[in-house]
Design brief:
By secondary structure, the protein is of the alpha/beta class. Helix content is 23%, strand content 16%. The chain has one domain: Rossmann fold (3-Layer(aba) Sandwich). It contains five helices and seven strands, in the order αβαβαβαββββα. The N and C termini lie far apart (56 Å). The N terminus is likely disordered.
């Protein structure tokens, strides 16, 4: 015999006060020559926001894919002026291509991640074993 006890559900009003701040997701401009894709469109950015993420987009990140900074701003994203600011803000960075040497910043994109940050991208571990070490 199985017995079930039903207990009333009560809302914890203090939960909103102790909620964790939204994770900051960064969408950098792809720097690989000829790359026309972007890791998130304005529509996918809206979906991430509904899941509780705060979205930051490097200016011009969607341009080659046909998405203007204004489209991202209308979707509720914050547009950041350059790669250094974007990488220094993002707790989660989302890219299409594997991280690589950034010619404007004169360093590797993986080195731009803030401590504890997560990178989501195609990496192809067999072709990029050094990325797995960093």
């Amino acid at each position: 015999m199985t017995a079930a006890v039903i207990q009333p559900v009560t809302a914890d009003v203090s939960a909103a006060a102790t909620a964790k701040p939204a994770k900051k997701v960064g969408i950098p401009k792809e720097i690989y020559p000829g790359e026309c894709r972007v890791a998130a469109t304005p529509d996918t950015a809206k979906k991430l926001q509904k899941l509780g993420f705060e979205i930051f987009v490097e200016t011009g990140a969607g341009e080659s894919a046909g998405f203007s900074d204004a489209a991202y701003a209308e979707a509720g994203c914050q547009i950041l002026p350059d790669a250094a600011t974007l990488w220094g803000t993002a707790e989660i960075a989302i890219k299409v291509r594997p991280p690589q040497w950034h010619p404007s910043l004169n360093c590797h994109e993986a080195d731009l991640l803030i401590p504890g940050a997560t990178l989501i991208s195609f990496i192809w571990p067999g072709q990029n074993p050094e990325l797995l070490e960093s």
